[in-house]
Amino acid sequence: MAHIVVVEDERELARLIAQTLRDNGHQVDVMHDGQQALERLTGSARVTPDLIILDLMLPRVDGLTICRRIRQERIIPIVMLTAKSTELDKVLGLELGADDYLTKPVSLRELQARVTAILRRVEMMRDESRTKDSSTEPIAQDGLRVDPVGREVIAESIEINLTAKEFDLLYLLASHPGRVFSRTYLLDRLWGDTYSGFKRTVDTHIQRLRRKLGGSGSVADRIVTLWGVGYKYDRGAQHPDSDSRTSR
Prior knowledge:
Blueprint: E1 3-7, H1 11-23, E2 27-31, H2 34-41, E3 51-55, H3 63-73, E4 78-82, H4 87-95, E5 100-103, H5 108-131, E6 139-141, E7 144-147, E8 152-155, E9 158-160, H6 164-174, E10 181-182, H7 183-191, H8 201-213, E11 223-226, E12 230-233
Parallel strand pairs: 1-2, 1-3, 3-4, 4-5
Antiparallel strand pairs: 6-7, 7-8, 8-9, 10-12, 11-12
């Protein structure tokens, strides 16, 4: 099964989470301190788990700082835990790279469902990369390269650091140029039916993805909004004029 790292300073909660995950066959490492987690999860000597469950409020180094540092180095699914529950807090966590978000008190059953769904999606993407002939080769166009095997993105000769969800979103769109995907389909495909986030989650990720790719006037213009319908990847779009179809 998967190797999961739990970073949580509430020791009893960390113990319960770890036991739940172990009962489901996962290998689990537990850390209670932000500085310890930062040292173990980043840098040249870092451990490489399949998923990280990360508390927002931690001693010495907070979870947002750890999340940001991890995202500067690699793509690993991150589930954020926090006592905060406002939509603004959720957006902040997602903006900084979290792939999912749970508020305390945590339902262990829901957490396990989220973990299972995320790991299933990651494995599905890996299976597609192994089995689809086109997926073993990078998607390459003028100024943009998406490598599904190394899960690397290069835009205008610059390597782009994306979250796991951002990469999956870009890869899905770019591997089906011209196809329109509704928000509902993208939520079901990439977040799964256990996801209970707010309706603008897809829009938030699209906006962040466009910004990371370079914003208006860059390869980001290939991600096109069809108002009231959804999104598509237009491989012919380079620097489109402003019109009612696109959103930045």
